[in-house]
Amino acid sequence: MSKRWQECSGRVAESGFEHPSDIFSEDWCSIESTPSTGTHGMISSRTASSHSPYDLRSISAQGSFLPQLQAFADVFLVEAEERLGEVLDGHLAYQAAGNEEPMRSRGEYAVELITFGLLRREYGSRAMTTPESVVDRLRELWRIRSTEPSRKYDADKERASIFADLLRTTRDYRSKSVIDDRILVRWLSAIGEFEQEAVRMETWLRSTGAFWSAHEFTSFTDGFAEWFATRAREILGNWTRGVDNFRLGVIESDQEREDLFLISRSEVLYHLNMLGAEVMNRGFQHEFAKRRSKVVLVPGCMRARSDAECRARHDGLDISCTRCHPGCEVAALDRLAETHGFRVFVVPHASSFTAWLRHWQGDADTALVAAACPLHLVPGGYEMRALGLEAQCILLEYSGCKRHWDPSGTPTRLDRERLLELVRFGA
Predict the structure, then answer these.
(1) In this predicted structure, what is the pLDDT of residue 351?
(2) Same domain? 56 vs 170
């Protein structure tokens, strides 16, 4: 039994429930509508973008978002050990034999397992019925747009057309009993939006082949995914009520967009990334706290002004705030940084993130705090792990990026108190 399992079990026991899952039983989590709080017991706060699939600023009958997420992470870690402890043991033994990479926390590996089950459930049938020639073409287009800037526009235009066709076509693979995970992983890698997840899943395919049959591994991870989907919606669904309407708008618009597999993701994948971010923060925490210098990376969507209007200072990859707009959230963070001894830099888009991370690779004195919306946080965490960086992540309170989420663009924000907690002490 791992130390983390014991710690989480202890917290669960303190709640007075007999089993970890009972913490979030249907009765305990039920939300009643009242005239004073609005529908579903949600207490409204400042209005975010009406287009945002999620909003973390509201308060449910059980409290605010972060404490609920942290408690759910404790339950998740206990459940993972009870359901898949032997699978985790086998994977860790494989890693310890020197076959792959530096060790990660058991919780991080548990997140990878749940990712496998959820992505199989979400995309397995589509992967099995996509012609191999289409997958090959998507892989080549991803290579082009990633390595040849002059051809990126044309590559993305073709990818958008293929993605629209894939999402328009309803494919049914129920006649087959098992999804071939190798085909699924290849498909996810070709799509591009799941590149980091596909790398982690490849590692699991190599390790589990030494201990379990494909049928056993599917059974393990599918069952865990089913448990997660139900529990996560009970606990985190209050903050992701906009996802279904947002997805419906994407489908009804019938647009050809290269980000279709980002903006069309289901509610459970938001929950996965929220949970994954919390668990990864715990895995990074010990080494993160040792670094003296802290750098906060924020997305361009937090700026009050557009790219053209913003007067940020550019120095190579570094984009720093000049406080050109008094109401800008980045300017507020920059003032906070001046008081509390950290630095803030703007990363204009997620596609710039990899270059920015390499910029800090090898700096043994600096740790990073990265802010992003949920669907970018866990892949970013995987990149940071691969590069040997120490980091924490923090969720934007809602999405407002003009490129993906809100046609008019709404400046986003984060929880400043939470940021200070991370910068000072780790998660």
Answers:
(1) 58
(2) yes
